[in-house]
Design brief:
heterotetramer, A mainly alpha (488), B mainly alpha (493), C mainly alpha (115), D mainly alpha (312), A: 488 residues, mainly alpha, 2 strands, globular, D: 312 residues
């Protein structure tokens, strides 16, 4: 299988899977088999592209020309590969988890759920491999649209309201700002291709640069910069597997991934640094970072707290991009990976707790850790990884981000990072601590609690292990990120 | 020999079919004839476009009398394109019409509907193809009278008042056009468009020509439902039979917008229209206000057909915005949107036809929960709606793309932003419907709703596929629109 | 400026405007149609005025050369008259049907019923 | 005239308004004669003062005769619209060539050919007919399509009831002996006159349209006097519809015949061996088509109004 074919296949494979799932509407077991097979196959396909990329190749596929000089095309570069690997790999884990969750919870419309999930994955692959901004934009919108039915899945008034906020914010920012920025870029540069060193250097008046940057960064609503972050907490009405894979990994990472892509390949980091255009957006990111952490502390609902934590963690990545130096961007890229593992673990745990006890508020979860040791163990690992303590993967990304801010001479940002890490401890650690040491008000009930269904436990154990692995073997990750800048 | 006569056949075939439909006096036979003739007209228009693209403007003297003494047909890139739109939409919606009309109209009136349909098609094609201003008026009246008839054929009594209101406003508009033609004739002594364009130059600073310009603009704008002269449109679309709404949405206002292009850019030259008369100063703000007011009004409609009517008013605003940018890019965007909007609105109205066919109403609350019972219909609505919003891979996106490029070319990024924001309003009114279709439980769960029959679904999906296809492969649409724009702007390069 | 050469047109304009006034102001559907007719008829007069040639005769060719008035506006207006009566017929038919459906042909009363 | 028009605007009695409009229409017909437009005058008299009035009265009979007075607000709105439009128009006339000016562009361009060449090219003295039927024959085709559309429209909206339940009582005015006899005397005369107008259009004022209207009015007279039932016996509505459609088809097919004989659409020159003969033939056929459609459409309009019965 040539890398080019594999690249194209990665986008289409989940779609084929979706068709298969739809056809097997009334047969749950074969249907879930299709999901698992597709997920595994997708991961293998993405892996098969990896060697070529590590060698420095960039497999490219050209589909068709939409408007003259503007094509639908794919091109795999290291950053995209990183994102695709994480998303497709975690899809397998999440599929296992969802089977346990959806059945354990007797959810309705399961076929629609799996179909939309597969379509969302296809879109994620498209975002990851897009060769130009237009292709990225198209898949970005497909991702929004295909996840909407997942968010509004329950069909209750609350779910519909959440769905409306979700879709409204994501589509309005992307159409209102991002599309405008894109067309402006095309108008100035005559292209939207992702090119090393950027395409705007000689074509855009530097005084307009901050405006353009703001349009892009706010336009990529999935990166959840304040004040356009409201969709993320709203999306928490979705079933937990959705929150786990999509709203901790695929969707939000598609956002920050796009931010990184735009920074590196549209603007070019040298151009941004020379023009000193990023200061404003950097402070917005810093503000989001701190503010979201503070809000997270006030949330008693577990998923809401995790959602705000995600908002804050995404701001790390945007901040890294806005520091515009290689080290910070490597840190940002690695944070995409490490946070993905950490946060998906936490969401898996939240779902497992809900499955086992139907509890959603942190204050009700005292003492559950003793009844659900696997779940709470995994949760502790996930939390520590996100806080950035060894021996967990989260250390590395924070390390590079910190170095990056020093390199940029941004002492203020360094302190923001530290303060935020302290805040992380303050809002994440109490959850496992209450679980293990808290006294439940209703002891009899707590004793009756068992672990969640086996598939769910397997999944969360696996992702927690992932956090550990990333600490001991960050090499491939780092090499991949370093490759991004090798050419520059 | 035939190929030389295509311009005449383009109009005469439907014209002949009209009376024959009446004579047939049979619902199915009339339908079959109308459909056959429509497809024939579509192929003729394809052939015409091909001829124009390969060998330039076609001039056809009716009666063998050369213009300006006789009436001539003059087919260039612009009207060849519009002919294609009109005949194409008619052909597809007719394929859809048979079942839908049989359901919505009393049997003894069906053949009259198809007679009217053919006459309307005759009128629209005639307006588009002709190179003579008075001939425009005559065919405009054919199209208008048959539209009043078609609208009023619906069973809903409100269609009568809608048709009457349209009749009064339409006649005022036509009379304004008539006055404009008189004033032009006084100053130039000719009725031929090409001849006019040459002779107006000599008298363009006279007050008479300026007045003529104003009267023609107002008259045609009334027909095109340009804001704020759109008041007749929403009810007319809402209460007409579904297939007829689809036909009108795809063709009638498009032809009027084409006429605006024709008058502003060919008969009067763009310099006169925009530099001397400063038309853009008036048109652009009006169009913008129109886009927003109509979109917001659409949001508050409870009848989805009416909602789409208001949406049409907004979309016409985009075309006018493109026009008033007075650049090759802007005009390209305008013409492109003419085509694209015809596709998306026809598609959406046809979808509503499917809905009405099964649930007997297009009111929002009655459509609750039909997403499950009618997955194909609902899916078509979603795609058509997204196209209206301007999501990539649909035609709507391509229109917006060019419109915004044109705005940026002027350095008017505020306009670009406003256009984008307005498409969010479209998102709101479309999403209201989608949410009700999919996520609201049916108001009457005991009622069994079946999916629309294949005879309705196939034409519907043809239109939907066209929406996607022309959103991906834009070589035809953009290519022709760009050539047309260059021609209109007098930019030969 | 030959102001006096234009008085004919001005009278026509006044007539037209009376017609237009009736259309806009009247709430009665049939009266509206009557107004439309006056409006249109006045436009016809405008056209025919354009065609008139001082000292001309009707454009029916005679053996000996003569000055003829312009026949083209006549042709156009023949067409326009037909168009006008066609519109009138259809408009009135609609009005009759509206009366059948609503029991009135006053615009305001119809609107009240529709809402 | 102005007085009549203003009276129409002020009066609330619809019946009177319609009658006044009839007078207005006749006055303008007279004006047309003064301005050398005899053909137009002929038509305006027949249509404006004839058919249109009959239609309006028919509509009044089927609805109501009183109008509610115009509310004040509307009055001002209308006045504003009118003043704006009117002053615009007056402004526009300021640069117009003065009335009857032989130097006006309208008399210098295009027209000379009609006046000087039409005898040679078409061979009939009435230039109006030449232009109407040949040079701009296509407009005329459009025109009869319009009237046909209207007829279809009225039939479609009002419908012709199978058993005629007439507003005009089926007995008509049969008991008026004088009326009946006058009518019987008049009818043949009117019909002959109609035929004369139909075929004399080449030489004097007249032609298919006027003839059609006259023919139709003769028929309407018959219907009014002898009752609708008798009238429909003479001319059953389906037949009338067929004639209306056939007229349009005739006209359009004459054009198609031109196509087959190697000319352009509506080129009559190729219909016979000599161009002028062809033109003659073509114009005669086309005028016949016009006459048929107009007469039949007018009659079916009359039927539709006369037989209308509100549903349920």
């Amino acid at each position: 299988m040539s890398p080019e074919f594999a690249t194209a296949l990665a986008v289409f494979l989940p779609l084929f899977g979706a068709v298969g799932i739809a056809l097997l509407d009334r047969h749950p077991n074969p249907r879930e088999t299709v999901t698992l097979v597709t997920a595994t196959a997708l991961f293998l396909v993405v892996c098969s592209v990896a060697p070529a990329v590590y060698r420095g190749d960039e497999p490219a596929v050209h589909f068709l020309e939409l408007v003259p000089h503007l094509s639908l095309a794919l091109r795999v570069e290291p950053l995209g590969l990183l994102f695709a690997l994480i998303a497709s790999g975690l899809w397998i884990v999440t599929s296992v988890y969802s089977i346990g969750y959806m059945r354990g919870n007797n959810e309705s419309h399961q076929t629609r759920f799996y179909v939309c999930f597969a379509v969302a994955l296809s879109a994620t692959m498209g975002v990851a491999f897009a060769a130009n901004m237009l292709t990225l934009f198209i898949f970005y919108e497909v991702l929004t649209l295909s996840t909407y039915p997942l968010v509004a899945h329950k069909g209750t008034d609350e779910a519909k309201r959440g769905g409306r906020v979700y879709l409204g914010l994501l589509l309005s920012t992307s159409i209102g700002f991002l599309l405008l920025a894109m067309i402006w870029t095309w108008f100035s540069a005559g292209t939207l291709d992702f090119v090393n060193g950027g395409i705007l250097r000689d074509t855009l008046d530097p005084s307009l640069l901050p405006l353009m940057l703001a349009l892009y960064l706010f336009g990529i609503g999935k990166a959840a910069l304040m004040p356009f972050h409201r969709w993320l907490p709203a999306a928490m009405v979705a079933p937990t597997p959705v929150s786990a894979l999509l709203h901790a990994v695929a969707v939000v990472k598609a956002g920050v991934f796009s931010v990184a892509k735009v920074t590196i390949y549209i603007f070019g980091i040298d151009f941004l640094r020379d023009a000193e255009a990023t200061t404003f957006m950097m402070w917005i990111a810093a503000f989001t970072l701190i503010a979201a952490s503070l809000v997270a502390m006030t949330k008693d609902n577990l998923k809401a707290r995790l959602a705000y934590s995600t908002v804050s963690q995404l701001a790390y990545i945007t901040l890294g991009a806005m520091l515009v130096n290689t080290t910070a961007l490597i840190g940002a890229g690695m944070h995409i990976a490490t946070h993905a593992f950490g946060k998906i673990t936490l969401f898996f745990c939240a779902g497992a707790i809900y499955l086992a006890t139907h509890k959603t508020e942190i204050s009700d979860m005292n003492g559950l850790g003793r009844a659900m040791p696997f779940t709470y163990g995994a949760m502790l690992i996930g939390a520590l990884s996100i806080i950035g303590l060894p021996p967990l993967g989260g250390v590395w990304s924070k390390w590079y981000l910190a170095i990056g801010s020093l390199e940029a001479g941004q002492w203020a940002m360094l302190s923001v990072l530290f303060i935020s890490s302290l805040l992380n401890i303050a809002y994440l650690l109490p959850i496992p601590i209450r679980g293990f040491f808290g006294q439940s008000s209703d002891r009899g009930e707590t004793n009756a609690v068992r672990e969640a269904p086996l598939p769910a436990v397997i999944a969360l154990t696996f992702s927690a292990l992932g956090c550990l692995v990333l600490f001991f073997f960050p090499g491939p990750l780092y090499r991949l990120m370093a490759l991004v800048f090798a050419g520059q | 020999m035939i190929s030389a006569q295509l311009p005449a056949l383009q109009v005469v075939l439907p014209l002949l079919a009209g009376p024959v439909c009446l004579l047939l006096h049979h619902p199915r036979l009339s339908w079959a004839l109308a459909t056959a003739v429509s497809w024939l007209a579509f192929f003729i228009s394809l052939a015409l476009l091909d001829q124009v693209l390969s060998s330039g403007t076609i001039v056809y003297a009716l009666g063998g009398w050369a213009a300006p003494w006789g009436i001539e047909y003059r087919v260039d890139e612009i009207n060849a394109f519009v002919l294609l739109i009109v005949s194409g939409i008619s052909a597809i919606t007719l394929a859809f019409a048979r079942n839908s009309i049989e359901y919505e109209i009393r049997a003894e009136r069906i053949h009259i509907l198809y007679t009217g349909w053919m006459l309307c098609l005759t009128g629209l094609l005639g307006i588009t193809i002709t190179g003579d201003v008075f001939n425009v008026f005559v065919f405009l009246e054919i199209a208008s009278l048959s539209s009043y008839l078609l609208i009023s054929l619906s069973r809903d009594p409100r269609s009568l008042t809608a048709a009457f209101r349209y009749l009064v406003l339409g006649t005022i508009g036509a009379t304004f056009i008539l006055i404009g033609i008189a004033l032009l004739y006084v100053m130039t002594g000719t009725l031929n468009m090409f001849d006019l364009s040459q002779r107006i130059a000599g008298v363009s600073d006279s007050r008479t020509v300026k007045t003529a310009f104003i009267f023609l603009s107002v008259g045609i704008a009334l027909k095109a439902a340009v804001f704020p002269l759109h008041l007749w449109l929403p009810n007319a679309y809402a209460y007409a039979p579904s297939a007829v709404s689809a036909l009108f949405a795809g063709t009638a206002t498009k032809v009027a917008v084409y006429l605006l292009f024709r008058f502003f850019f060919t008969v009067f030259d763009p310099q006169f229209s925009f530099d001397v008369m400063q038309l853009d100063r008036l048109l652009l703000p009006l169009a913008l206000v129109g886009v927003f007011v109509a979109s917001v009004t659409a949001i508050f409609q409870t009848d989805v057909k009416r909602m789409l009517g208001y949406s049409s008013v907004a979309q016409i605003g985009y075309m006018v915005i493109g026009m008033s940018l007075v650049s090759v890019l802007g005009v390209t965007a305008g013409i492109l949107h003419l085509f694209n909007h015809a596709l998306m609105k026809a598609a959406l109205f046809v979808v509503l036809g499917c809905v009405v066919f099964r649930i007997g109403s297009a009111r929002l609350e009655d459509m609750a929960g039909i997403g499950r019972a009618m997955p194909w219909t609902a899916g078509a609505f979603v795609i058509g709606g997204l196209s209206l919003v301007g999501v990539p891979l649909t035609v709507g996106f391509i229109s917006k793309w060019y419109l915004i490029l044109a705005a940026l070319e002027h350095g008017w990024w505020w306009l670009a932003a406003l256009v984008l924001i307005s498409s969010l309003l479209a998102l709101v009114y479309i999403w209201r419907v989608i949410e009700v279709i999919y996520f609201q439980p049916p108001s009457d769960p005991s009622r069994e709703i079946a999916e629309a029959p294949a005879t309705l679904l196939i034409p519907t999906w043809l239109l939907i596929v066209a929406n996607v296809y022309f959103g991906i492969d834009t070589s035809l649409t953009v290519g022709v629109a760009e050539r047309a724009a260059r021609l209109l702007m007098g930019d030969a390069s | 400026m030959e102001i006096f050469g234009l008085y004919n047109y001005w009278i026509v304009v006044v007539l037209m405007m009376i017609g237009l006034y009736v259309v806009v102001a009247s709430g009665n559907l049939i009266k509206k149609i009557v107004g439309l007719n006056i409006f249109q008829t006045s436009v016809f007069i405008l056209y025919i005025s354009i065609g008139k040639l001082r000292g001309g005769t009707a454009p029916i060719l005679l053996e000996e050369p003569a000055a003829y008035s312009n026949p083209l506006p006549h042709v156009l207006i023949l067409t326009a008259i037909v168009v006008g009566v066609a519109t009138t017929a259809l408009g009135l038919a609609l009005a009759v049907r509206i009366y059948g459906a609503y029991g009135t042909i006053e615009e305001e009363e119809i609107e009240e019923q529709e809402n | 005239m102005t007085a009549t028009a203003i009276a129409v605007a002020r009066i609330d009695q619809l019946f009177a308004a319609v009658m006044l409009f009839g007078i207005y229409s006749l006055l303008s017909a007279a004006l047309f004669v003064v301005m050398d437009a005899v053909d137009v005058a002929f038509t305006e008299a027949a249509v404006g003062a004839g058919i249109a009035i009959i239609l309006m009265l028919g509509a009044l009979a089927l609805t109501t005769r009183e109008q509610r007075p115009v509310p004040r607000r509307r009055h001002w709105v209308a006045l504003a619209v009118v003043v704006a439009t009117g002053s615009g128009l007056i402004y526009g006339t300021l640069d117009m060539p003065s009335y009857g000016d032989p130097g006006a562009p309208a008399h210098l361009h295009v027209i000379p050919r009609y006046l000087n060449q039409s005898m040679a090219e078409i061979g009939i003295p009435n230039v109006v007919t030449s232009v109407l039927a040949s040079y701009r024959g296509y407009d005329t085709l459009g025109e009869i399509v319009v009237i046909f559309t209207a007829a279809v429209g009225v039939i479609g909206r009002l419908g012709v009831a199978p058993e005629i339940t007439a507003l005009v009582k089926s007995g008509g005015m049969q008991h008026h002996l004088i009326l009946r006899i006058t009518a019987k005397l008049m009818l043949p005369l009117i019909m002959v006159f109609a035929l004369y107008v139909q075929f004399h259009g080449d030489f004097g004022p007249g032609g298919g349209f006027q003839a059609g209207v006259i023919f139709a009015s003769a028929f309407i007279l018959y219907g009014l006097v002898f009752g609708l039932e008798d009238a429909t016996k003479v001319a059953p509505p389906p037949v009338v519809h067929v004639i209306a459609a056939a007229g349009v088809l005739l006209f359009a097919l004459v054009g198609v015949a031109g196509l087959f004989l190697g000319g352009n659409y509506l080129d009559y020159g190729v219909l016979a061996d000599e161009p002028t003969k062809g033109q003659h033939l073509g114009i005669m056929l086309v005028e016949l088509g016009v006459g048929m459609t107009v007469a039949a459409s007018m009659i079916s309009l009359f039927f539709a109004y006369a037989s209308y019965k509100p549903e349920e």
